[in-house]
Amino acid sequence: MRYVDSKQMKEIDRRTIEEFGVPSIVLMENAGRGAAEIALDLLSGKENRKVVCLCGKGNNGGDGFVCVRHLINSGVETDIFLIGEPSELKGDAKINYDILKKMNAEIKIIIEQDFKLFQEKLKKYSLIIDAIFGIGLSGKVKDPYRSVINKLNNSGKEILAIDLPSGLDATKGSVTGGCIKAAKTVTFALPKTGFIKNKGPSHVGDLIIVDISVPGELLK
């Protein structure tokens, strides 16, 4: 299995979009739908099918918005929390946020004063979906993200990470400030080198690789 670092993965994404003409929003759609299918498998046979998805402001959050849309369409009760302001969303993430709003989905905003209430709400879910940070993360994870991540890890609930556990360096496998400890990670196209380095193995959990329509020759 070929592993790639964040720089290599970004170049694969760029070539997919610019050289092969696959629109970035198609890649996001495929990623979010693939994550939703894994989530549905995890919910299969469970009496409690309530899900919460935590979304960041970037493309990883956009994957989360797509995932939530497919879960809602499948009849799953899903709550969505955005860490940040909707005005900070842009590009494909903003498009998928707007789609959810047009579907009358309630997207709650996490602010520091709500942490205690948020922690109480975590008790009702059977699955947490992590769509906070993707491979673009650089530097130390700070509040409010660090506090949210710690509360998710301490909830005792199963966590499905989209692309990689939020807070994990995709290249080095290092953790600075906080990182999701996932039961399962659904990653796209190719696994990342950080999954098998340093703290990566203790945070990734079971790894599932999903095809998002990246041309095969770019994966070799």
CATH architecture: 3-Layer(aba) Sandwich
Order of neighbouring strands in the sheet with most strands: 3-2-1-4-5-6-7
Largest sheet: 7 strands, parallel
Strand content: 15-25%
Any idea of the CATH class?
A: Alpha Beta
- Which residues sit in consecutive blocks of at least 5 with pLDDT less than 50? none
What's the number of helices?
7
Total strand segments: 7
Helix content range of the residues, please?
Answer: 25-40%
In the CATH hierarchy, what is the superfamily? YjeF N-terminal domain
Rg (CA only): 16 Å
Helix/strand-derived category reads: alpha/beta
Euclidean distance between termini CA atoms: 9 Å
Describe this structure as you would to a colleague.
- This protein has helices at residues 6-18, 24-43, 59-73, 91-102, 115-121, 145-153, 200-204; strands at 51-55, 78-82, 107-109, 127-131, 158-162, 184-188, 206-210.
- The termini are close together.
- It has 220 residues and is of the alpha/beta class.
- The protein has a seven-stranded parallel β-sheet, covered by helices on one side.
- The chain is globular and about 45 Å long.
- It is built from seven helices and seven strands, in the order ααβαβαβαβαββαβ.
- The protein has a single domain, classed as YjeF N-terminal domain (Rossmann fold), CATH 3.40.50.10260.
- The mean pLDDT is 95.
